[in-house]
Amino acid sequence: MGYRDIYFDRNKSNHGWYTCVRCGKKLRKSDVDIDHIIPQSRGGSDNILNLQCMCKTCNRSKQNSMGLDTVKDLGKNIVRNLFRKK
Hints:
Elements: H1 3-10, E1 17-19, E2 26-28, E3 33-36, E4 51-54, H2 56-62, H3 68-82
Antiparallel strand pairs: 1-2, 3-4
C-alpha cells in the first residue's frame, strides 16, 4: 500500500472534496498532493502522522523545507489523527 492509499484510507472525503492544509483550496482526489510533513529526503516516513493534503502549488512551494511551518503542520496533524474517531 502506497502513502497516497494510506492517507485516503484514513481521511475520507467531504462529498468527494479535500482541503489543502496551507491555502484552504478545495480539491478533488485526483488533484490532491499528499505531502510528507517531514520530507522523505530528511528521514520522514509514510506514517499517517507525517502525511497531509496539499494542493500542487503549496506542495511545490514547500519543497523539502523544514521551517517553523513543519513544526506547526506536524503538531496539527498529530492532534487531528490521534483524536479522530475511527
